[in-house]
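Self-study notes.
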Amino acid sequence: MSSHPGPHVAERVGQFFIGDDRLEYTEFGSAGRGGDRWVVLVHGQLMPRSMHDPLARVLAAHGNHVVTVDLLGHGRSDRPEDPRDYSMTAFAEQVVALLDHLGAETAVVGGTSLGANVGLEVAVLAPDRVQGLLLEMPVLDNAVEAGILAFAPLLFTARFAPFVITLVAASSRLVPRRFATHWGRVVLDTLDQRPGPMAAAVHGLFFGRIAPPARTRRTLPHPALVVGHPGDPIHLAADARMVADELARASYVEASSILEWRLRPQRLTARTVDFVDEVWGRGTAQPGDTHLEEVGGAVLP
């Protein structure tokens, strides 16, 4: 099992505002080292941006300028209690606002679960701002029923038994973070929720658009790396394979399980480094260019 935090790179915490709402992010690397090779990594639902710290450090050590961000309602960003503040399209707008704030013309964008879906939304909202897509276990058509079963109890508990959420959060804060592994800290921070904002976030996503429809996904020309997990009832490998087949310039990699990138990250991290190098190594390729081989969802060995 690997819990190594990754190579040492420069890190800086920043913030930006959308209206009155404050969002926080971390930069890894520097403009002098990473130049314009921007990568934006987005967390899973209810999880903090720190989940991507190990990958961000490796990518930064390979000459990229990496940013992890807490979307609204997550991590150290503001957590409003209005469900109308939460949607996939609103999250995509937040990522575009982050790019504007950073002065990044384009970036490789994506993340895990929620982050993968947000990456797809950014590609639809602002296709000229996306250099490539990193999509780990997207949640699409095949996972609707499992998603309802997983998140409906959270919404019910936060609305009608908020003391449970408050108690779990208080308990998580009692555990000293300095004694926990990286993923232990991520779990503890994920458990540190407030009932009102948590219910609003789940409600907003639960009743909104989960991802761009298939007919729209098929029009996306961006190079993409799609990672799927067998045996995951919510993040079905069928969804990952489906989006890899739909995207004209996607490669599909199958993880051994949802735990591989958490506990034995070397193989998938190396694939990601290679993908990002390939995307940026082609120069300033724009959507519609055909510099990268179109592999149409082929499974890489």
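Second protein, same conventions, sequence then structure:
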Amino acid sequence: MTLPARWTGDHVKAIDAVAVASAPLLGSSDVVHVAPDLCVWDAWPLQDESGDPHHIEAGRQLWMALGAPWFADPDERHGHARIHLLLRDGATWRDLGPAMPDDFSPGSREWSGSAVVAADGVTATLYFTATGRRGETHISFEQRIFSASATLDKSDHMPRLRDWRDLKEIVTRDPAHYMTTSGGEGEVGKIKAFRDPAFFRDPIGGESYLLFAGSRAGSHSAYNGIVGIARQDPGPDARWHILPPVISADTLNNELERPHIIFHGDLYYLFWSTQRHVFEPTGPVGPTGLYAMVSDSLLGGWTPVNGSGLVFANPDAAPAQAYSWFVLPDLSVTSFVDDWAGDGPRNFGGTFAPFVHLWLAGDKAGIVR
């Protein structure tokens, strides 16, 4: 069994030894809401199996994002999250409502995932996190990984996903490696993880994988974040089998969120997002930012990019301005506006941040200026 690659305090200490790349500071003109009654955060495109966004027609794509009504306390949105379908038309976004029908999802909330269109251009599969249980009277933080299928309908000017079906739990927890999420506390930053499934089709071997955020079983630390992985069997059954984790931040960091892989320059790059407040507070502590490891093998050999893992951080003037970065194969990166540098004590954006663009060169990475 291959041991997970370790992301350690020594790696995070290396951040101080180099000039930290940071994203541009956002201003009020960058905070453009998708809809007046909807805030959105974690987002992903409907992708082809290659990982590229699926184009409905020139300049138009379907995306998904977590959405909820506006609350005085932005953290309340997590307890009301639904996956919304969005139309991206050039630089504009349009909310098409919840992606799945009411009472279809098995959870009390829907958390992050990914979505893929099959080679037929019609069959779409959504991989997502069902959090809690539908109908529960007391909100819980149990997380389960499900898939569901739908038909991509392009017959009119407004594309839709119709005929939702085949809802099933596809990745079940291996207690030898992955901590349970049942019965955990719900404080933001301390929730244990079994969530955020991200699809990846390996261009070398052709196998399909799901990356996901997890928490290490048997850890003596409250800061036990890991990146988990599952592989799909070939053939008609196409069952998913959970594998041991590929990256461990045990004793360092509680949440390696929304992990995902792209293949670039004959190398695999595994990205995740994390925040300053989920590092073990006695240190070392890294900034809120996009992090990554690189390898020439998907299931092992991972080493932190830039020697530290940090690809780029939020700017010092707004250390929480954006979050939940998702890297596309063309190296463009989406995220959402979190606490930007506005006039109030907290300025939650609840919308898409401007895309940024990465450069990757072997074990080095940064943001294009």
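Instructor comment on the second fold: Residues 5-367 form a domain with the Tachylectin-2; Chain A fold (CATH 2.115.10.20).
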